[in-house]
Fold this sequence. Notes:
- Residues 1-26 form the signal peptide.
- This is Lipoprotein.
- Pfam families: Phenol_MetA_deg.
- Keywords: Signal.
- This protein is mostly beta strands.
- The chain has a single domain (2-322), classed as monomeric porin ompg (Porin, Beta Barrel), CATH 2.40.160.
- It has 1 helix and 13 strands; from the N terminus they run αβββββββββββββ.
- The protein has one helix at 2-17, and strands at residues 49-67, 69-70, 80-97, 102-121, 124-135, 139-145, 156-165, 193-204, 209-220, 232-242, 247-258, 273-285, 290-322.
- A hairpin with a 4-residue loop joins strand 10 and strand 11.
- It is elongated.
- Residues 1-27 have low confidence and may be disordered.
Amino acid sequence: MKVSKLFAATVCGGAIAGLLPSFAFASCGAAFCTVNSNWTSESAATEAGSVLDLRYEYVHQTQPRSGTDNVGVGEIHRHHDEVSTVNRNLLMTYSHTFNSEWGLSVTAPIVDRDHLHIHHHNGEQVPEQWNFTELGDVRVVGRYQLPDVGNPLKPSATGMTFGLKLPTGRTTMANEDGDLAERTLQPGTGTTDAIIGAYYHQKLPQSNASWFAQAQYQHALNSHDGFKPGDQFGADLGYRYGVTDQLGALVQLNFLVKRRDSGAQAEPEDSGGRYLSLSPGLSYAVSDNVQIYGFFQKPLYQNVNGVQLTANRALVVGVSGRF
Length: 323
């Protein structure tokens, strides 16, 4: 079916992208969503061609947390008390598959961020706010997929991803008073990060379903102006059930571990943590060449270092097309 070919192409493009940006929690609350939208389709078969994916994320972080406990704003004293961060991220991913083994993708995020915290200055509490819409750090990721040698009645795909996060996002954003935003709030880290990952996908034709497992590790290769982001490891486990030829029901478990940031401009005591989320969703083939999808993400476990802003939920919607 043409719809099945669309599904296969969309997943192929997603597979070469690796994991999309994960939650980058920090004391200020800057974040991307950990939902993996690469496996919204029924098949992982590869086919030469291109896929364009446009994804919107909404993450509103209003809950200060220490360890696994919610705390009030200012309950644990800091130089400044974090109040709220609204993250609206638009991610565009172009993926090209050269053949059944090799592919390449480029992901460019546009970060729309509103942040408020209370600064303590000479006994006064001074609200400080930043609002900006900027290009974030671009990712270039390759994919190598191994030949399928499994059960032909349960076709599968195994591969690895590898690439770089580039320092394309600015690190000098300031508010109207000329105050620089915290480094973790900036649209970019200023560092070049190595990315490596692996994935496995299997189709279950008899039950009209498929499942996947995927993992990724990210490590900054340098520091920039006194800041180096902590290493990240993410793992996802997902299942898709074909309700109809066009409609798919999706569910994922998303796990993330982030190490503390380092450097003179970092806040190591208030960065890093461990996170587990449940992400149900739906995908729908609008036509032979276009698919839409959506996820609702709910945290199951959040354990942060120091005091950090967290979100009680996140939303992801997107559209993918083959050409």
